[in-house]
Design goal:
Helix content: over 70%
Low-confidence stretches: none
Structural class: mainly alpha
Number of strands: 0
Largest sheet: none
Distance between the termini: 13 Å
Strand content: under 5%
Order of helices and strands: HHHH
Number of helices: 4
Length: 102
Amino acid sequence: MGGGFVMVPLQVMLADVKPLRANAASLAAIVPISIAGATVYYLGGSGGRPALDLRFAGLLVVGGVLGAYGGARLASRVSSLWLARALAIVLALVGLKQLAAP
């Protein structure tokens, strides 16, 4: 789970930000955070070897870019109410999963 599971609901509930804008802000925040974290893992491996598998990370980047593009296109076509409901359902399912198998 990424920070979006915390960042997006807090923006929606506490700052009265529309879900679409909260998702966009969360995605924009991930870029510098990911670059900083990946750099630390790449340089901080044990035994002089990087702790980051660049091939696997590349696959995640491709999948993430395609998923973010598709999700952003879809989210822009869905009303804020339905987007908020979908977010609530996903968060409830994640919470139930955490309770069942932490």
